[in-house]
Amino acid sequence: MMLLLQVSDPHFGTERPQVVQALRRLAEAQRPQVLLLSGDISQRGSDTQFDAARRFVDSLRIPAMLTVPGNHDIPLLNPLARWLRPYAAYQRRFGDELEPVLDLPELLAIGVNTTRPRRHKDGEVSAEQVRRVAQRLRHAKPQQLRVVVTHQPVHVVRPRDEHNLLHGAGAAVRAWTEAGADLVLGGHIHFPSVGLLADRYPGLPRRAWGVQAGTAVSWRIRFEAGNSVNLLHYDAAALQCRVERWDYRDAADAFELARSEELPLQRDAA
Predict the structure, then answer these.
(1) In the structure, what pLDDT confidence band is assigned to residue 270 with cuts at 50, 70 and 90?
(2) Which of 16, 56, 211, 232 has its Cβ near the most Cβ atoms within 10 Å?
């Protein structure tokens, strides 16, 4: 059984220290093999905030990691840096590659940089990105869980979040599911959810799922949802993925299991 921890939107610079400590304890207890960090790592893209984020990530002691930037990871208050070197601070702490790929015996995870310096917060995916990801998915091994990680969502469950959908999501989801994607993970809206992608994009050739994570440790929570992370349990033999949402509970000062959903996966075209 492979265990993946999805952490999104920690917004270091606005972190709650007690929640940071609780997430460390959760990682220590659960021992995930992979960390998927789906953007908005910092609040304003500053060196100090990225330093704190990197120290936190290292403290989790998770063997493998894939990260993508979010719109908050591009400097907002420094226009020169935003246009000339928008990802410099991010890259100094998390590597030069903005679209990393993690290829393990039971996992193929592909990062997609959906941020654009010219946009304030909206995300976008280009035709070239769609093509590149689909091509890589086609070379996945049968036993691998195929995961695409974006920041802005391709699937939302509340009407109020429709305007946050990734620009170009329709074409991307169709191409990626046809190429073999099982899950598309995202963040951005601070509201966790799991949904069948065909419910939003009818006629998809395969069953695939959209998995959204809430904000992990920031005080920038929504009224309807507090701090949360996702744990993904993948059984390659059974071709089954279980997504667990773990919510931070103030009374317990701990992350507790709040919801668990079994996601049957598919390998052959419908």
Answers:
(1) very low
(2) 211
